[in-house]
Amino acid sequence: MSVVKKILDGYDSDNAGTLSNIYKLLMHGKLAGTGKLVILPVDQGFEHGPTRSFAPNEKGYDPDYHFEFAIEAGLNAYAAPLGFLEAGSRKFAGQIPLILKLNNSDLLMESSNPCPAVTGSVKDALRLGCCAIGFTIYPGSTARNTMYEELRELAFEAKSYGLAVVVWSYPRGSELSKEGETAIDIAAYAAQIAAQLGAHIIKVKLPTDFIEKDDNAKMIKKYNIPIKTQADRVRYVVKSAFNGKRIVIFSGGASKDLESLYKEIEAIHEGGGFGSIIGRNTFQRPKEDALEMLNKIISIYKS
Amino acid sequence: MSVVKKILDGYDSDNAGTLSNIYKLLMHGKLAGTGKLVILPVDQGFEHGPTRSFAPNEKGYDPDYHFEFAIEAGLNAYAAPLGFLEAGSRKFAGQIPLILKLNNSDLLMESSNPCPAVTGSVKDALRLGCCAIGFTIYPGSTARNTMYEELRELAFEAKSYGLAVVVWSYPRGSELSKEGETAIDIAAYAAQIAAQLGAHIIKVKLPTDFIEKDDNAKMIKKYNIPIKTQADRVRYVVKSAFNGKRIVIFSGGASKDLESLYKEIEAIHEGGGFGSIIGRNTFQRPKEDALEMLNKIISIYKS
Amino acid sequence: MSVVKKILDGYDSDNAGTLSNIYKLLMHGKLAGTGKLVILPVDQGFEHGPTRSFAPNEKGYDPDYHFEFAIEAGLNAYAAPLGFLEAGSRKFAGQIPLILKLNNSDLLMESSNPCPAVTGSVKDALRLGCCAIGFTIYPGSTARNTMYEELRELAFEAKSYGLAVVVWSYPRGSELSKEGETAIDIAAYAAQIAAQLGAHIIKVKLPTDFIEKDDNAKMIKKYNIPIKTQADRVRYVVKSAFNGKRIVIFSGGASKDLESLYKEIEAIHEGGGFGSIIGRNTFQRPKEDALEMLNKIISIYKS
Amino acid sequence: MSVVKKILDGYDSDNAGTLSNIYKLLMHGKLAGTGKLVILPVDQGFEHGPTRSFAPNEKGYDPDYHFEFAIEAGLNAYAAPLGFLEAGSRKFAGQIPLILKLNNSDLLMESSNPCPAVTGSVKDALRLGCCAIGFTIYPGSTARNTMYEELRELAFEAKSYGLAVVVWSYPRGSELSKEGETAIDIAAYAAQIAAQLGAHIIKVKLPTDFIEKDDNAKMIKKYNIPIKTQADRVRYVVKSAFNGKRIVIFSGGASKDLESLYKEIEAIHEGGGFGSIIGRNTFQRPKEDALEMLNKIISIYKS
Amino acid sequence: MSVVKKILDGYDSDNAGTLSNIYKLLMHGKLAGTGKLVILPVDQGFEHGPTRSFAPNEKGYDPDYHFEFAIEAGLNAYAAPLGFLEAGSRKFAGQIPLILKLNNSDLLMESSNPCPAVTGSVKDALRLGCCAIGFTIYPGSTARNTMYEELRELAFEAKSYGLAVVVWSYPRGSELSKEGETAIDIAAYAAQIAAQLGAHIIKVKLPTDFIEKDDNAKMIKKYNIPIKTQADRVRYVVKSAFNGKRIVIFSGGASKDLESLYKEIEAIHEGGGFGSIIGRNTFQRPKEDALEMLNKIISIYKS
User: Fold this and answer.
1) Three-state DSSP class for E129?
2) What global pTM score does this model have?
3) List D36, D159, D203, D205, catalytic entry
């Protein structure tokens, strides 16, 4: 358990309530005590629509399924928007740590400078028994100030009630290239911004070896920052989040073949990442396949 | 009564006050205890103007008429904007469950990206003895964040007072095609968004078999989602609202011949829809005709 | 007094405080108990500037004059912006019911989509001893949501303190034709919107027989709605305000010859209108002329 | 002292606290009891920058200087932004009535439709021992609603604490001509707007005989309103501010030769103006010259 | 210690809490009691990204490093955004005065009229044991009103809790030339604005001898304001901040050779500046080099 204690030391200024909730996330499920997390997020019904999200495995239309699945898979937590958590938080009370996702976008009106709607509140998180709030920021969007300032208020309120704060940090906006959204320098910057805004847990996408900004490319070259392997890049993003003093977890994006996925997990593990947040790759597969996949992933993180 | 009990189970996390008000809606009128609802909405005076709305049956200019009609017809509830409810809520107190519609648009200034004005408050609903608030969202509008965030605040406040939340979810906006507004994939998405935003009761338009988004068309084909008949489509929209754990009711739009209307009701019933919200088709007919029509509709839902 | 009682029945859901204030308006001055009202509004100093407003009768520069005039003429109430009421409400306390006009525009910056500034508060109305607040909306303006939502908040607050709510409803905006601003269908719509927003007393302009919207023209023709005479049109607007359950009063616009004005008053009376709000036609005449004119108007309403 | 009593009668609806503060302004300094005021405003450091403002008399860089100067000159009050008052309000506590200027613009970003930033609060005015707040509005600016509504809130709060409200009313905006900014009809309108918004003391620029609006020109001609001499125009502006029931003071603008300045003061005095607000003409001269000039001005107002 | 007492006299109107915190800043570290300050700011991780900021000295990725460094170097204070202070404020509690930077920009979306996001609150500053808040304004930006008004609110709240207010005043915006951003007249104006907004400590960039505005150039020439040497310009900026009654400190910008840097420090000292705020020049060097550099700088300020 010393690894968990060491992680908590990085949150030294937080109150006992927040520390307890971070502890709860780290001590639940099959990875309890390892300092690693695997979290199930299901906001795709809102973000991509029910058809694209749940048609591949129609059990996913039912909010109960995701609670049951996260519990059975022994994950650390389940994250979802207001409606999905309202539907099951009482039935499954106490069986799985919950993260209420407080903002969401949908695909019916897209913008090159996205700004999600705030769809829940800290008091909703409290009445639903959650241990954390979740919030998405899009650094690079012209609407970034709106998101940063919403997060500031919600995070302040959440911390005052002893909740933890999980930030999805996804660079996106009209001045960023498409490749730049997952560039290593931008991923590191996104992690830094989330950390400076007071996030306890930061979720970023796995970065590529592309470098968006010339200034950063010069620095990476001059100071020989290793970014060649996926593990290198994970290590650099974790370093960019207060030298590893903030929990950084990674998402894998759209469904892909399992071998590629396991390799990514190994790279996250090797690079000192704190774990994964895996949505579509789980709930879009038949339950038994998904459980098997997660067992494999968990075993990698335990290795 | 077990059907009502089963419906209430889907709202398990709600407080006793809200459950009592959903129960009240389901246990009032001729459909009491069937798990079905027929609701009278009269916001057309605001939305389309008095002339277009009430000229066909001039009794409709009088707010009392709609209370009396909904009571006499044995409907589950009557929904209207502030003024109409203020005019009769004391006189008819307790005789029919009321839903205060909290936002409204008018036709004097139309926009391709609509955003209604908030025209009432949760405290108005309380002082007028309502059991629920009503709110319209237009997913697809550039102003969607405004609406979603207004709904979030109003729904949170309503729930804190034990009221229920009814959401009219009408896709509309500059990136949607005209046909897309009632496309099956978009209707399912609209129901999902309302459910994720915390609606207890969701009102959508009857969907066509048009599919707006290619990504959805591929899914519907690949996974053989039945959308051919009206009943199929109703079933899919209900499934998209948390696998039937949220009450979804359907509107029929502009007045039409009765046979078409009854066929629609049969399809809603067959597809597992929870009922209808019928405005213009009722109050624009002579009272006796309208009562006869509603008796027929109710008998379909009871069959 | 039974006519006053009958009018109050239309406001059945309001609290005793608000009913008392509507009663006060109906029971003051020479028209007390008739169910008719003549109100003096003096916001032209703000709206059109002092020169255009008060040069024709220079006593009008002085705020005392308007209090004295309304009292001497035996009118039902005096309505003005903050400054004018602050200047005399203590000196003339209790002698004439006051309406604090809570929003105002000026001519120094005009817009085709007008939106007045909120220039006073409900608490100002209370400290100045007013019985009602007044508020202007411009249905048809792109800024209508701002106005409707300001009105919602102010009206809610006013009612909570037992004040009455008077709404000036003037269609205006970039999608309306100039003629449409006083079209019969639009005037009826404007009255309906004000009523749905919770107004107790609605002020509209006398409508012409022009019809702005084709949909409305069809209805008026199909259902033989009489709109040929001024009295017809007054009757239709009153009907459009909850079938006569809301007090609707009419303004006459710019100064004109007296015979035309009296004919308008007769038409308002014949059509079941509740009275007049007359500004420039009074305070821009010599006091004795204005008093004589108002006596004539009052005698018409008493006939 | 009867002149002061008569002025206070115009503010009859105000509470004792506000009346005391207006009284304090009228009873301080060399003009005490005359009903006239000379006020020192020093916001040019913010509005025009320190170099343009204070280079001509470098003592002006020091906030103490302005306190000392206003006290020594025997003025009625000293008005300045937050920083300048914070710097000396304790040291000179009680020695000179203070007006906290609550909004300010700077020259680093100019707009044809100006809107100052709100730079202080009513509670700042209280903690600094001020007797009034000051606020600038720009009638004619597209941002006028913002300013009017800020003023409404601040003035309401100030009055609730017994403070007085001083409004700088400067017509400016894209629809006004440059000459129109000081036109007699516009100056009268600006005074009227400030009065209607609830100002106790109104500051306008000395108007020219230019007339901006044709409608006003017709009225001025038709009703023979005298505007030929400066005294005529002062008289008309004072009349436009509630027939002299509001204190109206005048500013003289940029520095000029003393003879022109004294003539202006004589015209203000002759026209029934209540005094002057003189900034640059004082603090940009050597102290002794400025004191001598003010003595001369005060002697004119006493004559 | 009389120099500190004299400085505090300039803040005479502030409460004992704020005076104590200014005192604390002036009495901490190697410059304690000299009236001079050297402050370490580390917001570059947010503002420029972690790669550009911390790659040159990788210890800087770790938030602990900056606390330890500021303590070891004997600086007066350490300023940083929320995340960095949350990471160490408990561990290093009491060892170094802290300034919580309350707004921040990032480089992922740049604008010619910048406006930082508010990223922390006054209550965060209190719970983290800070003695001051920090805030950046960009005079010249079209968004200046937003920043000035945010500062007004935050400064008011901070002062009410006895905190001090540090303002970074950086002229920037579409109407300023690039050279104008550091022009002597603009730097003086920026210092004046910050002072008028109620700042206790003002940070500006070292100005050049460029003059942006013709009006100012005329004044500088006419009144022989010395601006030729760096010391002259420092003296003029300090004079423009209430004749030296506000603490003005200077930043040096990007890293440069040490000799140039020491010359700048000497000029600041000679010109009566109150000290330096040095970020990149410290944490981007090896620790020992940076400590040596700061010892040299401190010795200059002590000379």
Assistant:
1) coil
2) 0.96
3) D203
